[in-house]
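Each field is set out as follows.
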Amino acid sequence: MNNKTKLILVSLICFPLTVFAAHGQSISSFDSTTVSITDVSLSYCQSNGSPFVTTIGTIKNASDSPIEDLVIEVKYFDADKKLIDVVTQPVYGLVVPASQEVAFRIRDVADKPKAAYVSNTVRVISAEPRVTQQPRPKQSSFSWIVDLLVSWGPMLLLIAVWIFFMQRMSKKGSPQVRTIELIEKQNAILERLATAVEKAGSNQSP
């Protein structure tokens, strides 16, 4: 096995490992100790003939970066502290800025009557750090000119070559001009011969 083949095999092995490591880092970047939920309240209501249980609270983000794509779990208990229902929902469009708090609401169809829902506990299962786009550095005038030349250079070169050949063909004494002049002389001679033949034919006619 030569060195080139070894290099290709190493690249193919390392690339999936790099992708897996980056993906794993994104998942494990959520720290549950920096996210807390407070001011939780529970309500039960009827809507269109269906019972709904709703949990409202506040998410506090104590980290240095905003988070999004949160998944929240709510556990409901009865008077005997027995678990009677669980709701796990992703909260789309919710972004909690760094060192700030945002209110949320989790609502789902209730499986038990109103008297069964006495208390609840809420926790954040997962969240992702919000990726902010870095502003692109301003390009200098020199780099802008270089980009313009790279994009339009081939077309400008073709135009310059075309103009060069057109000017060369239009010069007096060039092969192209001599060829055109020769063709024009031949056409003039042919026209004279045709005129002479017509005159001779008209003179011979009675």
Observations:
- Helices lie at 3-28, 141-170, 175-204.
- The radius of gyration is 42 Å.
